[in-house]
Amino acid sequence: MISLAGRDILHSWGKFVFTGVGLGLLIGVTLTMAGVYRGMVDDGKALLDNSGADLWVVQKDTLGPYAESSSLYDDVYRGILGMPGVARAANVTYLTMQVRHGETDVRSMVVGVVPGGPGEPGQPGYLIAGRQITRGHYEAVADVATKFQLGERIQIRRNIYTVVGLTRRMVSSSGDPMVFIALKDAQAAQFLKDNDAIVHQRRRTSANPTYNRPGVPGLLNSVIASQSINTSVNAVLVQILPGFTPAEVAEPIRRWKRLQVYTRAQMEDLLIRKLIATSAKQIGMFLVILAIVSAAIVAFIIYTLTLGKIREIAVLKLIGTKNRTIAGMIMQQAVGLGMIGFVVGKIAATTWAPFFPKYVLLEPVDAAWGFFALMVICVLASVLAIRAALKVDPAEAIGG
């Protein structure tokens, strides 16, 4: 049996293919938007995985250290080490900032960790080149996404650091690559005031006696005030002993240390529900808009193609072709256009995804759902053209 849809497509294949390519680029954008959302979720999970922690101990009544600010004294970890079920505990600081590299700035998350080997909480889990931080000052391990090279010197605040190691897929929840430095350096970078601020504080302290501490000269007092905040960290990362559950270890810390403790499941929920929720809604709105636009384009194209062959449809009706056959021909064309568009869109999304500044994760399940949704859109979009075709009077085949 001759395929009427196939013969019609071959008759005007150029217009049909170019239309499919245009539709495919739109579908490629749709798949990419879904991949951006998947990438954001994966970045959040990678952040938690890379921390090497089972529990996150943060300031009470905060959602820190990723969702909001958190500040703890840096000696809190000693008390946590003595709690039942705790294997390791380590301080950590997080600061998103511009890292100076030559004449350019690289937006990164600077992570302050206790120098040590892999497996310690907060340390990079693996390196692709170089070594871990072993000294207490002026060494850094960077993610390859920063484009830093081994041995290069970078500037964080006022200090210069040498890149001694490179790692991969160490990113913040927003996709910024991480730069690891020693904890003391990170505390200075995050909390230490610049020279001008210290000078101003000294003047304010000397001018206001209420700031002075008994028995301490005013100048020294201002220095103490400016440096005392450097004993702060953002969180304590905890690893638990085998045989204990996170909930069993977390509850005594909450009760006796009066601190907020999050398990991995709770922290993952916070990242997705608090940090990614708004972006997810925006991406969802874009996907809905793109779906509507795709349906409108397919409907317009199929309707235009149908109007262009009114006489041919009238001839088919005149020779006794059933309405079901004509409707099937139009629907097949719509589905064929959608299939061409999906193939082009999938190839386009796969091609340009690595060049996006944010991580784009193209999941097969999203492609499957996208294909199914596109076929439904094409079928529904062909209804308008089918209605127009079925209203054609067979007499038009021999008229005008």
What would your notes on this structure say?
The protein has 12 helices and 12 strands. It is elongated and about 100 Å long. With 400 residues, the chain is an alpha+beta fold. The protein folds into 2 domains: 4-44 and 277-397, no CATH class; 60-192 and 234-258, no CATH class.
Summarize the SSE layout with pairings.
Elements: H1 4-11, H2 13-51, E1 55-58, E2 72-73, H3 76-81, E3 86-101, E4 104-113, E5 129-130, E6 139-143, E7 153-156, E8 159-167, E9 178-182, H4 183-191, H5 195-207, H6 218-227, E10 232-233, E11 235-240, H7 246-257, E12 260-263, H8 264-275, H9 277-307, H10 310-318, H11 323-352, H12 364-390
Parallel strand pairs: 4-9, 6-8
Antiparallel strand pairs: 1-11, 1-12, 2-10, 3-4, 3-11, 5-8, 6-9, 7-8
Helix pairs in contact: 1-11, 2-8, 2-9, 2-11, 5-6, 9-11, 9-12, 11-12
Offer a few descriptive terms:
10-stranded mixed β-sheet; 2 domains; alpha+beta; two-stranded antiparallel ribbon
Mean of residue pLDDT values: 82
Task: Label the overall shape.
Answer: elongated
Taking pLDDT < 50 over at least 5 consecutive residues as the criterion, the unreliable ranges are 222-229
> Whole-number radius of gyration?
31 Å
- Helices, by number, come to 12
- Euclidean distance between termini CA atoms: 31 Å
Q: What would you call the structural class?
A: alpha+beta
Number-wise, the strands total 12
Largest sheet: 10 strands, mixed
Output the helix-strand order. HHEEHEEEEEEEHHHEEHEHHHHH
The percentage helix is: 40-55%
What fraction strand?
15-25%
